[in-house]
Amino acid sequence: MAKDLSVTMLFDIYGDMLTQKQRDFITYYYDDDLSLSEIAQNEGITRQGVRDSIKRAEAQLQDFEAHLGLYQRFQDLQKGLQEISDMADIINEVNMRTILSREINDAVSRIHTLTKLLSEQ
Q1: Secondary structure of residue 58 in the 3-state scheme
Q2: Is 11 helix (H, G, I), strand (E, B) or coil?
Q3: At residue 114, what are phi and psi to the nearest 5 degrees?
Q4: In this structure, which of 47, 58, 95, 121 has its CB flanked by the most CB atoms within 10 Å?
């Protein structure tokens, strides 16, 4: 079973909406990097039971995203913040080649600070 890295992002957003057992299995499989067999042995169930539980959890996470779109909104926000930062770099470059305005330099610096702060939230 190939590990889908977007599941970890979806889990961060929607994980609390899963059952405790599903959260445990997703954590064991994706975060702790345990195999299906290792999880099954630790939990006292079959490997197939673990696989089915993880697959159901993944499907639920995908369904939550399809209905709520929070992960897509997050990605769009990150892309927009990067574009703002890139445009600030262009403004700064033009400023340095032409008028050397301290106000523009300060504004560009503030834009970078704000975009970094917002992207970390």
Answers
A1: helix
A2: helix
A3: -65, -40
A4: 58
Radius of gyration of the chain (CA): 22
Mean pLDDT calculated for residue range 107-120: 94
Cα torsion through 43, 49, 51, 55, rounded to 10: -110
33-55 mean pLDDT = 97
Closest C-alpha among 1, 112, 18, 115 to residue 62: 18
What pLDDT band is residue 4 in, cutting at 50, 70 and 90?
A: confident
- How far is Cα 28 from Cα 23, in angstroms, rounded to an integer? 9
**Average pLDDT for residues 1-24, to the nearest whole number?**
89
